[in-house]
Amino acid sequence: MRGHLRKRGDVWELRAYEGRDPISDRKLYRTRSFRGTKRDAEAALAQLVLEVTGTAPSARDATVGDLVAEWFELAKADLSPSTARGYEVSIRRYIVPALGSVPLAQLRPVQLDQLYARLRSGEAPATQPLATATIRLVHAIVRRALQQGVKWGWLSSNPAVLSTPPRVRNRPIEAPSPEDVVRLIELAASEHREFGVFLQLAATTGARRGELCALRWEAVDLAAGALTIDRAIVHGTDGRLVEKDTKTHSVRRVAIDPGTVAALEAHLARSQARAAACAAELAPGAYVFSRAADSSTPWPPNDMTHSFIRLRNQLGLHSIRLHDLRHFAATRLIGAGIPVRTVSGRLGHANAATTLGVYAHFLAESDREAANTIGGLLERARPGDGDLDRADQDAHPVHRPVHQPVHQSGGHR
User: What dihedral do alpha carbons 183, 185, 189, 190 form, nearest 10°?
Assistant: First the structure.
């Protein structure tokens, strides 16, 4: 089966050979127009040839659900397990129920905008109003799938490009106070000492929950007061735990304070005692936080979030999230004058610009404090009026301090 393409203005004409007419014996071709690069046009031609041979669904018959399923099956290999899980949930809950049966040829931007409006108001397929970020994720998935459909030749243009998803309005970060963080750690320690250590590490290192769940004792240097973060635990598409590299694919060494070192030392002793009580030893590569006697399996990140929510609700701190302990570490370090590059390194950001972008609001407040501080330094450095030399006093008698004694007899000399 053959196919070829040719350029007509800014449009590629794709032609795939379908055989000969049984009556006239003329060659028959299926044609399609395509806009894009030559490389993409060649890929679309290959897909057209597959359609003609019957080995791929025809664009005339394909639905949005067909395309999204085909795209996701190919795309998920390049996605992190947690991202793939988020995509799968959005596809299953929102995209397929709303658009799955819609023929690609009939999909219009207005249908996408209507879907976004329903998701925002909590109408079907949603069961409650969705956050703007979630709706934007739905839009991103649909747009990427449709764009792949254009490349494959399943449709001539991408309707999602002309749709209007809601805007995300970034709210200023509100990190918890040191007093609230201490209350959370102390309550956690009183109920479950290991979880208290987990929260203390989260607050002092700013590490992500998945990174702490993936932390192994071999990465903890208690003598040097430091730990190495190079892995993360996430929930895969099937719900099982998956260990992967960090979000930014980087390895970082983070110093820890003496108090946190002491907490980890006590936690290690308890872990060893638990293993001994079960006639076991800590497994090679044992996890710092584990429910297994030999610490061979990690804590699930979602369980940590659920435990934190229960804890914070007990204290009436309903607006604080587990991730806010990371914000606490960042904002307090920046406020203490620690260089942004150092803070960025501790947090595991790709670069300092990311840190500046995330904490821009807090940095603006810190900048006001900096202005007041530098101004105060100059004010304190100014010489007092009583220290002015005699020449200056003669030149500027109006500046004579009021506390200088006035001659009592003979008037002014």
Answer: 10
